[in-house]
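Tip: read the tokens left to right.
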């Protein structure tokens, strides 16, 4: 078998002979990210570019994914795939991220030629300042899209809506002039915020699926779209409208009123908030998941550290804007409010409609869960807000868990001595994600740890 050489290493391309060099690979990924914000790494290639191949199976791919998830901060979401050079298989890891500085094993590194050096203190502090400075945020970066890429129909609908809301006072209709006034351009190019709002671009991705049961097992429909926030928000709303059951109430004079099982005001609020507060450079998609008993709206943007959903529901927090340009633009059209009242409005609308709702914090995102009318009829007439109980939550409410927690619970039932590492490997999750899920389960009294940390076991206390 002849040897293939794919060229030398560069500042953005790194080679490792096998996944046995995993730690060195993690250091290289972080060093490249901090210097260039994107790059590629190959397992199965010698330093000089000679392809020697790598055993590739589900376990090896999972090890790469878990190592990246466990040892790189902030989190990244690389594309990991099998590539073939000649007759030899290798693992290709394509990665990118703009939230520098990144840390590998809690240490920042930076690329110099083909070396991964520990970052000096001044560079690290400068990156921190730049990351925290909104002038350098993702939405203010100049995109590759121009005014000509604008979805004119979506833009015109937005402009009319903003005028009808009375929040835009100027009379101009020219797209360039309006976008300039909204501070969404730089020269002939759109900022990322403008492109995300109004262009049919790959900056936004929406995944929607319907499942045959209450579990993520068999889906009956799955769709994926890219496009503008304005367009995708409409697609998400229509998808939920079509999936829900509606009942009819007959009023005076035989008038008919169609009532959805989940209030549409709450649905719209959750959808637009999922885009407005998204972590756009996370590499994740917004998601709509329709189950038999519930509807989930997922936002790939973790909740602000140190703040809980109930703080906003009770109206005790000032607004925290991850994407101020996007949320301000959506405020003008009255799609979003800028007073940190979104969760409060969702909770209030559901309470008035007798619809159960939950707000779930996840390690890398946030989910709004609406329970449908066919779920637990005894609980239809109450509203449950964040899983960390509020004073208004009835004590008799059943303890609810997400799908990950239910799968963890099943593993504990089968093996009380199962470790968090074993759970992470079985469920294809990071150990950190498993720890957070199990911490939440412990706080809710579902499980508790018995015995010593290493030799003890898990006990299921309540379900």
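Filled-in amino acids:
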């Amino acid at each position: 078998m002849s040897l293939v050489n794919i060229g030398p290493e560069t500042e953005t391309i790194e080679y490792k002979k096998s996944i046995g060099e995993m730690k060195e690979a993690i250091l290289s990924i972080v060093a490249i990210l901090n210097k260039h914000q994107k790059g590629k790494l190959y397992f199965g290639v010698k330093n000089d570019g000679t392809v020697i191949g790598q055993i590739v199976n589900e376990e090896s791919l999972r090890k790469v994914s878990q190592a990246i998830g466990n040892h790189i901060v902030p989190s990244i979401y690389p594309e990991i795939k099998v590539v073939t050079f000649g007759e030899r298989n290798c693992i290709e890891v394509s990665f990118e991220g703009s939230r520098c500085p990144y840390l590998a094993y809690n240490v920042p590194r930076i690329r110099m030629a083909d070396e991964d050096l520990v970052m000096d203190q001044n560079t690290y502090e400068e990156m921190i300042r730049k990351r925290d400075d909104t002038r350098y945020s993702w939405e203010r970066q100049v995109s590759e899209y121009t005014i000509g890429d604008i979805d004119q129909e979506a833009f015109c609908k937005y402009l009319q809506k903003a005028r009808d809301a009375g929040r835009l006072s100027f009379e101009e209709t020219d797209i360039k002039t309006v976008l300039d006034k909204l501070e969404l351009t730089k020269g002939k190019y759109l900022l990322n915020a403008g492109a995300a709002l109004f262009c049919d671009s790959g900056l936004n991705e929406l995944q929607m699926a319907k499942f045959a049961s209450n579990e993520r097992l068999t889906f009956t429909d799955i769709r994926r779209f890219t496009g503008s926030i304005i367009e995708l928000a409409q697609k998400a709303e229509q998808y939920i409208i079509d999936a829900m059951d509606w009942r009819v109430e007959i009023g005076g004079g035989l008038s008919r009123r169609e009532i959805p099982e989940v209030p549409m005001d709450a649905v719209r609020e959750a959808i637009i908030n999922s885009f407005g507060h998204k972590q756009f450079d996370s590499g994740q998609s917004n998601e709509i998941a329709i189950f038999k008993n519930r509807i989930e709206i997922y936002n790939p943007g973790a909740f602000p550290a140190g703040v809980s959903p109930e703080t906003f529901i009770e109206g005790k927090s000032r607004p925290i804007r991850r994407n101020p340009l996007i949320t301000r633009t959506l405020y003008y059209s009255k799609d979003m409010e800028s007073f940190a009242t979104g969760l409060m409005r969702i909770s209030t609308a559901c309470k008035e409609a007798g619809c159960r709702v939950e707000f779930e914090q996840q390690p890398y995102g946030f989910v709004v869960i609406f329970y449908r009318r066919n779920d637990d009829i005894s609980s239809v007439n109450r509203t449950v807000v964040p899983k960390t109980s509020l004073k208004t939550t009835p004590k008799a409410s059943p303890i609810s868990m997400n799908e990950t927690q239910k799968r963890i619970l099943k593993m504990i039932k089968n093996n009380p001595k199962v470790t968090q590492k074993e759970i992470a490997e079985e469920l294809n999750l990071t150990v950190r994600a498993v720890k957070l899920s199990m911490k939440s389960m412990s706080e809710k009294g579902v499980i508790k740890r018995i015995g010593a940390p290493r030799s003890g076991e898990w006990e299921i206390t309540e379900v």
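The chain has 14 helices and 21 strands. The first strand starts at residue 13 and ends at 16.
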